Here is the input.
Amino acid sequence: MNLSRLSIIGVGLLGGSIGLAAGARLSSCRIIGYGHRRETLDRALEIGAIHEAANNLGEAVKDADLVILCTPVLLFEETLQAIAGFLKPGAVVTDVGSTKRSVVEAAARLLPRHARFVGSHPMAGSEKRGVEFARTDLFESALCLLTPTPQTDSAAVELVENFWRALGMRIAEMSPDEHDAVLAEVSHLPHAVAAALVHMPEAESLRLCGNGFLDATRIASGDGGLWRDIFLDNADHVKAALAKLRQSLAEFEALLTPGKSEVLRAWLDSAAVKRETLVNERLRNQE
Here is the structure.
């Protein structure tokens, strides 16, 4: 794709991985990074995730064809406001946030008419945080969700889609509200449940946990500040997902009687089949 200057705002795990992947696949693209910590920028330069480190947001986005916001979601509005006056005509802005309604609304309100915004959410990452964990192949075969609205410029959507495809991603589109509702169930609530499971047992019990407990709670190792912002920004949909989980747990509790042993087994087997189907679909997408 024809992209000469890319600006990455927030060079952590995702921002650093974007820089590494873009540098490997878009050889003619100059990658500019900006972050609050100089040591992070120095590390990003050292590993080749960015070509230049900007001293301020204006310098970072000046002349950029594409700007990607990789900060925590509750910093998006502040960042959009700060870069608005420095974007060149035709510049496209996107993001990697796990919530979409707030950033889409803020971009429509704050960005100048000559700049275009497309919400995006690359479904890749890990519980790790920091540019030192950045990987060139992080996005390979993963899914990226784009959230255009009826007002979104179609050429900007095409540019953002082509960018993520160039990094090896698959693309799906949905509205910002649909995104936030779905992600509450399959991403946000699972993280809260993992954290709740870690908090639930007494210390003596935790010392006896096995690999099953550690596997089920792996994502609880994620950054608390980042996930706090996601939960607060998507609180209504997370609460709705929580209500559905309570219903599912109530159904399970009702099966804990000898007379319903076969129904309980069928409930468990059904979950096993659903998960196995998901795993197989993921493997096919990686082929």
